[in-house]
Amino acid sequence: MTRLMTLLGQRLRRDWLQLTLWIGGTMALALAGLSGAASTYGTEQERTALLATVMANPVILLFRGLPSGPGEQAFIVFLLMPFLVMMAAFMSSFLAVRHTRGDEEAGRLELVAATTAGRAMPSVATLVHGVLANLLLGVLVAAAFLSGGSPAEGSWLAGFTAACGGLTYLGVALLAAQLMRTSRGANSLAVWVLVVTYFIAGIGNALGTPSDDLTHMESSWLTWLSPFGWAENTRAFDENLWWPAFLCLAAFVLLAGAALALQTVRDLDASIIPERQGRAVARATLSTPTALVMRLAAGSTIGWMAGAFFAGALSTSLGSVVNEMGADNPAVADMLKALSAEADLEQAVVVVFFTMVGLLAACAGVQTVARARQEEAHGTAEPVLASPVERVRWLADFVVVGFIAIVLTCGAAFAGAWVGTARLDDGAALVGDAFVAAWGQVIAASVFLVLTALVFTIAPRWTIPLGWTLVTAAIVFGLFGPLLGLPEWVTNLSPFSVAPVPSGSEVDVRGMWWLVLTVGVGATASLVLMRRRELAAAG
């Protein structure tokens, strides 16, 4: 017990800031959702009309939860539950990999295993650490609902569900850390499982059966293959079913048990899935540092492009659906217009979906620059810089490749938008709107690219956490600001909210010039500062 408490204390000291951001952000999302949804959809008539529209157009359920009635709290859970579980899942996944495969890759686990703690105790400490973090998250989510006057049982069920969902993906990440050879591979596997199961739940809801009064949805069997589906089927503030949340707990126990069992049968620094062997001789295309960076970023960029293509296709193919929504429910029309500079509804849909594309593009850019920090911390940057490659050129390659990743991601979304207009009579106009929106999001996403590069030169240890924190904050302000009832000036703090967008037959440039100025100044400053910075492998 003494060894366990020592390791647990060490993990808490390392993670206190990151856990504060994740848990506090999840609670803040619940609080903001309660106040924002209550003011935006304040009457039962508005909520009933929106739910009826959702039932008639179930593709919307791909991005929301499971409708469980027009009650105020049940409606808020329909809007927020998938995102509460997603926040807990990301927190748990990164925590698990950081303290298992990450420590093993860095050589720290070998030092700990050489003490009386042994090999198993660090994993047990990580397990306990993740459980405590999710319990705290669940309690604070429940407290957020209780503070708004919500019924006690539904509030505690919502918090318990969010915590159980996070625990499921804690188990997924612990298992991924045993399967994959690197922390990068383990994180990628865990995130892909999260994204796939999220869409499985959304598709299962879309294929479900609506009730006669069009206020409830009975999900299809496909939803029951996903932890997100289990969480949504608890139906907090409606039926208050606890047993689906225990499916998440059961999955966590099985996954965590499998991870601990696999750890006992593999060697330290080995993996269940063997690392792919590289070529004996590099291709001529890898003869430059720029080509090396492109090789490192290729896999993740393709993933972001695939998601952007899907979002772009939906942005133009849902035009007729949203016109019906706006006619049936003015609150929906007002919300879309608030997110899109008062454009007409079809343009509004394009703008909203391309705001999501901008988010994906920003993630592609931030992840590319974050690789520079990973290369530096893992010691693989030093051999490159020992060759005739200057530090400025080395960082510039990551910035340039990150910008290319942003352009490709937004370009894939534009291609998807063009495909989505294939059956539309007035598709040409929407293609033009998609082109404007895509280039607007290129500018917005580039802000996060250069800010992350700037952090990398000033405070290397903060590159990854601060880069992703900036993106997360921009998501909350830009994508959920109008839904949560945030003031306009707060929403406009997000580059996604002030990027150039189509407005009628014109282009609303809004904050284009200050975005371009920020990109130029940030890129220049990061490269100038890199001239004087030494390598900081240990931060």
What do these coordinates show?
The model is unreliable at 335-343 (pLDDT under 50). With 539 residues, this protein is mainly α. The chain has helices at residues 2-40, 44-56, 72-99, 101-106, 108-113, 120-147, 152-179, 183-206, 227-232, 243-263, 289-317, 319-328, 330-338, 345-377, 381-385, 391-420, 427-458, 463-479, 481-484, 488-491, 512-530; strands at residues 209-210, 217-218, 501-503, 506-508. Helices cover 73% and strands 2% of the residues.
Concise structural overview:
With about 550 residues, the chain is mostly helical. It has helices at about 1-40, 45-55, 70-100, 100-105, 110-115, 120-145, 150-180, 185-205, 225-230, 245-265, 290-315, 320-330, 330-340, 345-375, 380-385, 390-420, 425-460, 465-480, 480-485, 490, 510-530, and strands at about 210, 215-220, 500-505, 505-510. About 75% of the residues lie in helices and about 0% in strands.
What is the topology?
Layout: H1 2-40, H2 44-56, H3 72-99, H4 101-106, H5 108-113, H6 120-147, H7 152-179, H8 183-206, E1 209-210, E2 217-218, H9 227-232, H10 243-263, H11 289-317, H12 319-328, H13 330-338, H14 345-377, H15 381-385, H16 391-420, H17 427-458, H18 463-479, H19 481-484, H20 488-491, E3 501-503, E4 506-508, H21 512-530
Sheet bearing the most strands, described? 2 strands, antiparallel
Say how many strands there are: 4
Structural class: mainly alpha
Question: Helicity range of the residues?
Answer: over 70%
Order of helices and strands: HHHHHHHHEEHHHHHHHHHHHHEEH
Based on CA atoms alone, the radius of gyration comes out at 24 Å
Strand arrangement within the widest β-sheet reads 1-2
Distance between termini?
Answer: 32 Å
Coarse shape? globular
Query: How much of the polypeptide forms β-strand, as a percent range?
Result: under 5%
Low-confidence stretches: 335-343
> So how many helices?
21
- Mean pLDDT rating: 84
